[in-house]
Amino acid sequence: MRALLTGFARWFAVGAAWGALARLFMRLVSTSPEFSWAGTGLILAFAGLFWGLIGVVAAARANGRSRWWRVAPLPGLILFAGAGMILLPGAIVVSAALAMRPVALRMALLAIGLGGTFWAFNAFDDDRFLPARTQTLGYLLAVVTVAWLGAGLHLWWRRWAPDAKPAAAAGERTVEASPAAYGIH
After folding, report:
1. What angle do CA 15, 16, 21 make, to 5 degrees?
2. Which of the four pLDDT bands, split at 50, 70 and 90, describes residue 184?
3. Range(s) of the domain holding residue 132
4. Do the Cβ atoms of 54 and 158 come closer than 8 Å?
5. Number of structural domains, the chain?
6. Which of 29, 30, 83, 158 has its CA 20 to 30 A from that of 22?
7. How far from 59 is each of 39, 84, 141, 166, 173, CA to CA, in Å?
8. pLDDT at residue 9 above 90?
9. How many other C-beta atoms are found inside a 10 Å radius of the C-beta of residue 147?
10. What's the pTM?
11. What's the pLDDT tens digit per position in 136-150?
């Protein structure tokens, strides 16, 4: 249980950082950039919850627990019920790309997912002229946010080893699923 709580806490921090980046890009692409602290707090809290529960899945997988832990992040999907929905298609394509073996196919899917995100933000822009520098920076941060989200979805959905044995049952130290183990520092 300690590994699950540790996984949640570590990945909650990753989620809060992801939420802050998402909030920043929203601020930069908005034509009316006013924001409330309550709204920002909700974004950070739901992002932390979603990513924290992905951390629980990673810890459960690493410690050979039941595959049922995979449903844990479902409550965090409320984060994408509103405007955040525009992030999901690109993130799903990025997640699928990360699971592909041939490098050429992986790169093609990454280009489609990330390029499609950039296109989507430009296509739904109210201003038909070239975007201002802050909006362009916001679009680029949106692409980074989608790539980061795709990596998280991949971590959530990736294959569960069928013969995984709990480390504690084998007399070993339990494995903690830290963000650093997945290349996130």
Report:
1. 95
2. low
3. 2-182
4. no
5. 1
6. 158
7. 30, 26, 29, 11, 13
8. yes
9. 19
10. 0.80
11. 888 889 889 999 999
